[in-house]
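Notes from hallway chat w/ T.B., transcribed later so I don't forget. T.B. wanted the structure written out for a chain they're using in a teaching module, and asked if we could keep both sequence and structure tokens in one place. Agreed to drop them here.
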Amino acid sequence: MKFTIDWNDGAVVLVDQTRLPHEHVVLRLETVDSLVEAIQRLRVRGAPALGVAGALGVALAAKQFEGERERARAVQLLRTARPTAVNLARGAQRAAALLPSFDAVLAEALRIRDEEIASSGRMARRGADLVQKLCGDSPRLLTHCNTGGLATVVDGTALAVVFELHRRGRLGGVVASETRPLLQGARLTTWELRRAGVPHRLAVDSAGPFLMARGEIDAVILGADRICANGDVVNKIGSYAHALGARAAGIPFICVAPESTVDLGTARGADVEIEDRGAAEVAGSTAPEGTDAVNPAFDVTPAELVTAVVTDARTFSGRADGPDGLAVG
């Protein structure tokens, strides 16, 4: 399969990320309900990929339902399947604006897919230039969660920058943070890095700030699920801790995300609904039966801790006034 998510002969096809790294399984989804289930169970994840999923889901709705009420219900299910990442709702809304025409909706969904593919290449080049400018040659980078082609359609966001530095022969190595509790870094990022031949090591999440303090990391580079109007970055839980570690160590903290993840309609991170995924993922079989847990899937890194945000169109400083702030590259 060429892309992480795509349309094929009347169905959404996607890589089931819950089966990696041990099995590479491609799902074929022909109903809105099956796609919503895949989104909620993280079979497909990552802000750009979710934007494409939302748009392709509307194409499924246009194909599956004839009534306006049924289609509207399907669009609402898609928009709200996961509340934190802005791309999902934005992709669904953009495609839904062309209902009831199936052909027009599908064309728009595939346009969104192609836009995300093109943006990955631009982010890779822009981000690699910035990392070299800030860190010199052979930087040692720490990543968090998964930001490669699995999180987009192909190539990725922050990992696309890593791959570009590797192609240039200008990468000193990568530490992948495991990303508790679902281990997207351990399961998915290491899988992508290995396939690309990028030298890397895996670390528990809490080791990141200590490795920075010990001088083993030159910059933190990660993605985003939403970038607010003031420059606050909403990303996978654990990102904030890495930002604090980077500030204490005096190293750059760089966010790489497409323009489709910038949400000028949300003033600040405190206004974002943070998804809590319940106790089972945390307590599991390791804690005593009946143990409750708090399990936020995302956190908010304040703009003042963000050295720079790299999109497919620009680079701006999180330490200015958000997305219209100081250009740094």
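Follow-up for T.B.: The CA atoms of residues 132 and 200 lie 18 Å apart. Might be a good example for the class.
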